[in-house]
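Usage

Read records sequentially. Each one opens with the input sequence:
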Amino acid sequence: RPEITTVIDVVTRRITGTSYARSENQRSVAEALRNACVNHGIPAIFYVDRGPGFRNEALDADVSGLMGRLGITKM
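and closes with the structure output:
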């Protein structure tokens, strides 16, 4: 069954980015975040549930990680 990854704006409660994949992984999380950034700008804070798609070096690495390169604080 497919996994739907969504990025929601906490102020307006609007869905700003989505991704559909067979499992929650780094690629689906990055795709949902990319969609949110393209459509609504880069967020200052990215709240996550620490699921398997959010715990990886591609997002968390200080210099080469996506959060560090975009200047996003992950909580």
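Summary fields computed downstream for this record:
- The chain has a mean pLDDT of 87.
- Helices lie at 26-40, 57-60, 66-70.
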